Fold:
Amino acid sequence: MKLRSAVRHTLVLGLLAVLGTTVTSTATATADPASPPNSQVDATGRPRSGWEAIGPNSIGGMLGVTTSPTRLAMMEPAPPMLWLSDDRGASWSARRELPQDTVIQAFVVNPTDDNRMLAIGTKQEGRGDQWRGKLLATTDRGRSWQTLQEWWPEGAFQLAADPSGRTIAVMQMNGVSISTDGGASWRVVPRTWPREGIAAPLGDQRMTMVGDDLYFTTVHPEYSLWAVRGIHAAEPKAERVYRAEDEVNQVASDGRQLVVTVGAELRGSADGGKTWTVLRRDPAGQRLREPRFVNGRLYTATYQDLDVSTDGGRTWARKPVPSPGEGVTDIADLPAGAGKPAATLISALYRGVYTDKGKAGYEQIGVPGESMRELVTTGSFWQPQSLVAAGMQEIYNTPLPRGRITPSTRVWQSHPGDRLHENAFLSVSPNRPDVVWQVTKNGFNTDVLRSGDGGRTWQLVNHGLEGAPQAFLVNPADPDQMLISAFSMFGYVTYRSEDAGKHWERTDAPGFLTLAGDSWNRNRIWGGGTDGLHRSDDGGKTWTQVSDEPTTSLAVSRWGEGRVLAGGAGLRLSTDNGRTFRPVHEGAGNPREFTRILAHPFDPRVWFASRIGEDGVGVLRSTDFGRTWSPLPGAMPDSRVVSLAISADGGQLFAGTSQSGAYRLTLY
Structure:
């Protein structure tokens, strides 16, 4: 046994003695499930407060503002979710009534009535050039949506509407549909512009309406600007307006001036596209993107910088984007009112919505729409504690929240620019709680990273392991031993390391979606997947199947009494080291319903289980060693809970949701 492991066991045994827990003289601690230990820590009472949103407010999208000085909307494109704020972005509520199998390509809010909104939703079906597109409308601020029109297999990709919402244009693969009566009836302008293969007009800012003309940019093989002239006439006609030596990409207009991005330049026309001038050329030759007119100001950006002109493009001022490397997704002005000045909002899809504070920089205001795939806590009683989270493409960290959660204390650090933390998994061994480990997808391979400062900085330990990670474990009994389950082009593979990730051994094993270890036996490992539950008694070298029930979550008691909990479509309990299991909670039928199982660090009676629930129940708790389960009190705005973590003292429980960030529940 390594020295650190021996010291930890000594400390634990001493703590058990102080708490009055019976410990045998053997190397394995035992606890009689029939007589709970007389612990000074009691986590079975009613939690002190309800669930509190703690962030990170790290998601942006398409903005919708009106004449209201307080109300604003933001559309998260995939899976589609409408976020609403009634207090200028200080707090947000979510609505998920949109079809969850579509991607929102465009979104507009009626400028005088924020109850009325339009959205284009698209999903690919059948062959590569077959799409199902829908024009969706709401008149009650997203409580319900109606399909005004559906296009298949042409799809729907771009949307433009006049301020009244009566004239609407939607682009498909091979034409443009136009309605002049709010979507009740439609005419189609057939495609006369070039298009090859499965090229689709994806991306934003490719269409704008100017009076009786509709301007749009085309895609492969000809990247040009076209227009449909006379959209209110009986027979509108399409014509090419501008073809440049480089790709014409995005287009915008304020009704007087037309601008397009062409490579590293922004070009403008004041005569409907007859003549063009270069308004802006990026000094470093970076491609310009996201042209926008906002209240008399003209914007364009790179992934690093944001340019603004107040005189139609004659002169420019430059400042960094809110999150370097991410660029800009949308820009809008929130009107002055309620004692607040007008505010310019800048959205970055994977970083959030920001208020432009001028020379003071940016203030992040939302939105809490991140999917928190993984949550872990680091540190201990005598060390600084942090909460570390893995989102869809990013790693976040924050000091462990204390006291009341406010916008000023809800501050998370992310790591833009260093790497894409995609499909990342996190693990911390209680034998070394100051170190958090990460495995993350890097192309077709897996990288291994280490952080010794609560996730603030990361060091690459090993890279190039074949396959994408599916599960990860740092052994709770030996922090130098690690296991990774990955999926490669040849199927599932498992990697073992005995030296803290420096060297890896590839072994044969089933495909695991979850891994768990025994705190008192470094050789006892559990692995669960779609084909059942497996056990290894030699540190993951060989495996024995113990159950054929799909298993997506696992936990082993920290107290060494042979208690194992497995989750999938329901919860199953073993009290004999996994030799037999019995059902203790019936699920709703989803084989991946239960996502995490977590033991309380000091009260062996208490366990927590997270689930993807549509019934408002995202976290269950057991206070009788896992025999029976009940929902934790307090409603959670998003009950699709995919991750769980607990503070070192057991007083705070953290839940990560599928698309609404993380929440905290104070237990005592």
Summary: The chain is about 5% helix and 45% strand. The CA atoms of residues 131 and 155 lie 4 Å apart.
